[in-house]
Known about the structure:
The chain has 451 residues and is α/β, with parallel strands linked by helices. The protein has helices spanning 19-24, 29-35, 39-49, 61-66, 91-98, 100-114, 128-143, 174-181, 210-222, 224-228, 261-268, 302-307, 326-340, 346-363, 371-382, 389-415; strands at residues 77-82, 118-123, 159-164, 205-209, 238-245, 251-256, 278-282, 291-292, 316-321. The protein folds into three domains: 19-228, 3-Layer(aba) Sandwich (Rossmann fold), CATH 3.40.50; 239-321, Ubiquitin-like (UB roll) (Roll); 326-433, de novo design (two linked rop proteins) (Up-down Bundle). The termini are far apart. The relative contact order is 0.11. Flavin mononucleotide (FMN) binds at residues 53-57, 59, 81, 83-86, 169-170, 172-174, 207-209, 212, 388-390.
Amino acid sequence: MPEVQVLSQRYSLSDGHTLDGYLRSGGMAGLRVALDMAPADIITLVKDSGLRGRGGAGFPTGVKWGFVPQDTGRPIYLVVNADEGEPGTFKDRELMERDPFMLLEGMAIAARALGCARSFIFIRGEYLWPGIRLEEAIAEAYTDGWLGKDIQGSGFDFDVTLHYAAGAYICGEETALLDALEGRRGQPRLRPPFPAVAGLYACPTVVNNVETIATVPHIIELGAEWFRSMGTEKSPGPKLFCVSGEVVRPGNYEFPMGTPAREIIETACGGMLPDRALKFWAPGGSSTPLLTAEHYDVGMDFESISAAGSLLGTAAMMMFSDRTSVVDAVLNWTRFYEHESCGKCTPCREGTFWLAQILERILDRRGREQDIQILDDLCDNIFGRAFCALGDGATSPIKSSIKYFREEYVQLIEQGRLPDHIEPHAGVVTENSGHHRPHSRPPARAGAHAR
Ligand SMILES: Cc1cc2nc3c(=O)[nH]c(=O)nc-3n(C[C@H](O)[C@H](O)[C@H](O)COP(=O)(O)O)c2cc1C
Ligand code: SF4
């Protein structure tokens, strides 16, 4: 399947981020159509398109919009999730930098469909440049009557507020995001009630990912059938794939859903780096179970990746060669989860700490015979028992790496060495290389693991 240019169509324009450039290249066509449509018809069209959320879970967007009650007498909010904290994911950043009006147009259409007059973009604090681009775009849109009162004389009022997040992975989880937006410490809420019924300020709220919302104008302009002409039956449409790791040309690439991983990597990305063979890869960010070279031909859609034993997640493909230690990569991610665990529930708060401890001691050549079993047991006591999906995600790289690369763990524990071809690099130290792996943190005090 060839590369497509729907969401990325303005990436090569020097002024695609300005209102002039946006309008000149066909922007706002979807909103013009939507302003003449009944809100319920917009929702039906998005349902018919089969668009599924691009934030990780793949929930059908039109169905989510349909859950919002219209008769509560309370305001309805739209919140765009621009937190983009999943390791390996950088598609929303480029979209906001290069085509901020596409997001604003999608928001206005979604708001019209939902009966919403005020919305928020929750952007991660580190995204300064995309934030500046959005601030400029919002200001231009207000000046030119694409936001604010009586948009383009349609009688439709709609306001957008950009909110910079303080910086925590958990604040990308939609209910923690809402708490953070309300000014509280970002921790997931108990559901039900779901945000569609009681979200921001206890009002009906839709939370959608940046890419999801940016896809909407195209569906409204070109129709559900056009959208379904790309991708697979259950995962239709174009999709941005973020590719990183040991490939020739890492970056964001747009392909129809269901395109085989091999095709994305070998064509758009120029393949793996010279003399490096694919060893393992994460298909959708570090929270998704690792796959191996044997899964290289799997289609990049929700169903195919799930059948292969993983998850499409954010479609952030992280590619690793046989020169990389899988145990070391897994430790790196596990440290991230340990650091980002919000602490609300015990399995994740305590479990991620111990997972990191055990992986560190294995890589420090202090591993014990029973450590693989302990890692496995710990994962089983976190997965499905943690309060939110962060806990589950933390176990994915560990369980899958043990499933496919148990030998590498065994070799480290029993012989204190990694396979010969693994290259030492910053953070990865092999017994064979003669380096010493520094302790990443002070040794734990007995019985104490407070952060
Ligand atoms: C720990 C965690 C972090 C998340 N981070 C993000 C994020 O940064 N951006 C995002 O869009 N969704 C993120 N999500 C998913 C959101 O909870 C939610 O499903 C999504 O924003 C819904 O949008 P969509 O339906 O358009 O995909 C995260 C979920 C979890 C559990
Ligand atoms: S699973 Fe982790 S991040 Fe989620 S609520 Fe529990 S402690 Fe917080």
